[in-house]
Amino acid sequence: MDMLKISHVGKRFGDKEVLRDLDFTVPKHTIYGFVGQNGAGKTTTMKLVLGLLSADHGEIFVDGEKVSFTNNRTNRFIGYLPDVPEFYSYMNPTEYLHFCGAITGMEANDCKMRTEEMLRLVGLDGEKHRIKGFSRGMKQRLGIAQALLSRPRLLICDEPTSALDPVGRKEILDILVSAREETTVLFSTHILSDVERICERFAFLHQGKILRQGSMEDLKKSCGETGFELELEQKEKLEKLMEHFPGGTRQGRRGVIYAQGKGQSMEAVLAWLLREQIKFTKIEKSGLTLESLFLEVVGK
Amino acid sequence: MSTFIAFWKKEWMELLRSGKFIIVLLIFALFGIMNPAIAKLTPWLMETMADSLQDTGLQVTTVTVDATTSWTQFYKNMPMALIVVVLLFGSMFTQEYQRGTLVLVLTKGYPRRNVYLVKTWMALFIWTICFWLSFVITWFYNSYYWDNGNTSNILPAAALFWLFGIWVLLLLVFFSTVFSETSGVLAGTGAIVLLSYVVTIFPNVQDFLPVKLLGAQGLLLESQVIGDYGQAVFVTVVVSAAAAIAGMLLFEKKRI
Ligand SMILES: Nc1ncnc2c1ncn2[C@@H]1O[C@H](COP(=O)(O)OP(=O)(O)OP(=O)(O)O)[C@@H](O)[C@H]1O
Ligand SMILES: [Mg+2]
């Protein structure tokens, strides 16, 4: 069963077509990465799911219920973290979470316990100051806490890690992973390593269209050989190497990169280097398969 | 019901912590005290000025003040107090639009109708308690210094002015669902009140206009009877209710 189903959705702002025939589904209990450049339409898609915007055509279903524009009933089981979350700045985090629990009809004791639990989870426990003075990263953490407070079935996060330092990013990603037990996560980002780290499925959005989607495993399989790069000790030998293995791009004075899909395997190059007794300082598989795919997909 | 109260609590916290509540409370209390004070001080002021006035050839007759003088002062000051309330509540919706704070509330599935009703109720509630606080203070001082018994229709006249305030505030709420900036809200409300003034130049519609309620002090002097205000009250109530309902419908579909 799918938690979220977006079916042939189109949306335009004035004469600008922002989403074209958008079509994808998010299965239950998956972490779904929603990747795209600035202005690709990620935030717009999320606002449609939340009923903050109305789609021009197409339908959206959350856990089988149809989404409607304004007073969207499916919002009761969605937790949402906007790209820039805005809170009542005169409250402190505890007061804000109590308020969130109360307006959603949470039972008072449960709300209290859950608030403490969530604040501990995001590292804001003991923070008694008002939200007014919070940094962006702190707001992002509080944003995650309020999104998870009422145990949502679907968690929608719009670039949850964009304002965080590297340690904070890892913490938040870990929270998302641990949340998967109880919920389904859809999160947008342009940090591809985040997607590789935690997502089981992903979709690439480009100019309002899904260009590629699937599971990370499929992606790895379909890509087969990944690219690699190496650096020789002497730059004179580089010419010879590149003649023997065409398709590389020079990088710096002594380096060369073989992108994925150029038909060269790292093992063959390595064997050749050893045979020819050419010394090298570095040889490395390119980790970011997603990034190269992304660049390829958007045609850059 | 408990979700209503939760949002109402939040509105209270906002009013208290932003200091807005204290401001309106003080202003209304101050006006309440000023009305009798000014009346009380008038003869004394006249006396001290009498000498200098006599030099200019003006004859000062002794003025007598009583509760009616103080009540007349009440109707001079209350419009100003109402303007303060309008300025403070003009941003109650727009501030949330601009800061985006409603997004998290609505995306939790909280009904828009509740947001609208609580905010509307809050504005009417604050106006009501502040207005009648000012009334009670004036009444208390008046009965201490003079005698309220010599002034007629004190309560009905005040109720008419209170109703005028309700009308203005419901217009304010209505325009808060039309415009997203405070300036638009205030301009819209001001324009309707002004228009209602301008129309009074036609003598036969005068009696039907909400602004007629502003002249309710005429009742104090028995030059008018309560019945004179029947049509104006009817129109005011109908327009207020229409504005409240229209605002609710618009808010349901407003893009936030
Ligand atoms: N309210 C609006 N009115 C007009 N155009 C809009 C509106 N909201 C978004 N757009 C346009 O829609 C396009 C998609 O915007 P969107 O915010 O969905 O992008 P995004 O993928 O979230 O980008 P980012 O990575 O920068 O957050 C942009 O070109 C933007 O200019
Ligand atoms: Mg965005």
Shape of chain B: elongated
Give the beta-strand count of chain A: 14
Largest sheet of chain B: none
CATH topology of the largest domain in chain A: Rossmann fold
Helical residue percent of chain B? over 70%
Task: Supply the CATH superfamily name of the largest domain in chain A.
Answer: P-loop containing nucleotide triphosphate hydrolases
Total number of distinct structural domains of chain A? 2
Q: What count of structural domains of chain B?
A: 1
Give a quick account of the main beta sheet of chain A: strands, pairing sense, barrel closure: 6 strands, mixed
Which strand order spans the largest sheet of chain A, edge to edge or round the barrel? 6-7-8-3-9-10
Protein architecture, described:
The complex is a heterodimer of chains A (300) and B (256). Chain A is α/β, with parallel strands linked by helices. Chain A has 2 domains: 2-222, Rossmann fold; 224-294, Alpha-Beta Plaits (2-Layer Sandwich), CATH 3.30.70. Chain A has helices spanning 42-49, 93-103, 108-122, 136-148, 166-179, 192-198, 216-223, 236-244, 266-276, 289-297; strands at residues 2-13, 16-27, 31-36, 57-62, 65-66, 78-81, 154-158, 184-189, 201-206, 209-215, 228-232, 249-251, 255-258, 280-285. The longest helix of chain A is centred in the middle third of the chain and has 15 residues, at 108-122. By secondary structure, chain B is an all-alpha fold. Chain B has one domain (2-34, 67-253). In chain B, helix 6 (112-145) runs antiparallel to helix 7 (154-178) and helix 7 (154-178) packs across helix 8 (182-198). The mean pLDDT of chain B is 90. Classes of the chains: A alpha/beta (300), B mainly alpha (256). Chain A binds chain B through residues 50, 52-53, 70-78, 80, 82, 84-88, 90-91, 95, 99-100, 102-105, 146, 150, and chain B through 2-3, 5-7, 9-10, 13-14, 17-18, 99-101, 103-113, 252-256. The complex binds adenosine-5'-triphosphate and magnesium ion. Magnesium ion (MG) binds next to helix 1 of chain A.
